[in-house]
Amino acid sequence: MNKLSSRNQLIIAGVIIVLISAAVVFLGIMPLFEKAADIDIQMLDADTQMQAANALVERRLSAKERAAENQVELLRIANQVPEAPQLPSVIIELQDTANATGLDFIQITPSVPAVSEDGTYSTMSLGVTLHGDWSDIIEYTRKIDKLSRGVRVKLGSFSRVEETDEIGDVTSYINAQMTLEVYVMGVTTAPAAQ
Question: Which fold has domain 87-185?
């Protein structure tokens, strides 16, 4: 048998080491790089999906919040424009508002409801007569806008009245005659007391 020279043995050993190193790199390390690249892609996909899920959660929370706000607004509107005239409660509210502003509530006259052109709601006019100071009448018209029921001042006429009492003292006040309008959802045929 032929003995290989030490130089040839070194060359063969070097080739074997290079082949083993190449096999380790190609069979062991390169697949790990590919797996790492796949994991990076999966992480980017997961991050994108998480951002989309977070955006969806934010939209749903926002929609839920808006839904709650809309429900509160619908309840407020339903109170302002109920399905029945509820005339006694309107009269009591108008009387309480007059008392709170220092006015004398003299008279209220409801009219027959008028149906809207599209038939979805009715309006009822209320003739109201009040006596008091001008500033109190102004305050009364401001407070009407804040009532729980939807009331609108449609017309108003104001006159100054002077009266002399038994001992000769002259007092004056403003006589206010206003036409107020209240709204009812649906069609109402007559002012019903409830």
Answer: Alpha-Beta Plaits (3.30.70)
